[in-house]
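Example record

The entry below shows one chain as it appears in the dataset: sequence first, then structure tokens.
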Amino acid sequence: MTLHSSLSCTGPPTGKNMSQLNKNQNCSFSDVDDLMKIVQLAIHIPTFLLGLLLNLLAIRGFSFFLKKRWPHRAATSIYMINLAVFDLLLVLSLPFKMALSHVKAPSPAFCTLVECLYFISMYGSIFTICFISLDRFLAIQYPILVNHCRSPRKIFGICCTIWVLVWVGSTPIYSFHGKVEDYMCFHNMSDNTWSAKVFFPLEVFGFLLPMSIMGFCSSRSIHILVSRRNHTQDWVKQKACIWTIAASLAVFVVSFFPVHLSFFLQFLVRNDFIVECRAKRNISLFLQLSMCFSNINCCLDVFCYYFVMKEFRTDITAHRPSRVQLVLQDTVTTRG
């Protein structure tokens, strides 16, 4: 069973399924699927190893900043730890995804759990990155107002809300396979999975809305910081902030835009808007490739972690007293 079938096969060939089966009888995807077996192994194994290491290091690093109890860094640290946990979930689901795509799951419940973890981690990352972008924009645009509202407890509450939203939003996964009795995980998706009532809310609220919010917040934040270049003495810190925003936006677009575009194209295929065999084969290849490369997001987020930590260290260095200041402070204290 192939990934193409995971997003196009249905249950017993009756009614609409029978007509679709007849249309696809002369359209083979075997060469695409054979190629993707090699590509998935080549991508998923390094992604698992690097993602596991990098996200564990990120959690450890931001936990260190959080333990130092710096109020102005606690909010960002909580967001980053939350993002790293979602990425870690994706990493841990990859071995099961690779294995269960080729062998039958020990139980339907286990299959559903693995599918839930995979998609929850994807959309949890999307929402977390979106809130990080919104939080940073508000902090840049309204620094005085946000300082009174940006407590660690409230940020922790937002992260908990994200977890609730993605878990509640994962309910359609429980009916991914409909009434199909013999299926493999991530395969044999039912017609209902590709219906407009399921697909469009997922596409709009799961990707288009977060991408619009992030695009607006990122562009406005960069514009504000650049406009302050000649009016600030702390340009090094603001430059690090600009790189953080740009890296986050680039990682988001590269990771999630292609896969959601491929979802839309596959929606057109499953609803018979696209029926030409060559187009279906190309869409199948694009869909599988984009899903593979979207998993690399758990490694690409390390660039966001790097720039945020660099920004933290720049800020710490800027506020750390020099040796001369320490000597003067010690002298004043002794004389007092």
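Notes for this example: The chain has one domain: 3-11+29-314. Residues 3-11+29-314 form a domain with the Rhopdopsin 7-helix transmembrane proteins fold (CATH 1.20.1070.10).
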